[in-house]
Amino acid sequence: MVPTNKSLREPASRGKIWVKPTDQMDLWLDSQGYYRKHTAKDGSCLYRAISEQIFLAQAFHLDVRRQCAEFAHRHPELLSSVSHCSVDEYVDQMKHPHELGGKVELQVMSLMFRKDFL
Question: pLDDT, tens digit, for every residue of 4-20?
Answer without folding.
Answer: 544 444 444 455 566 67
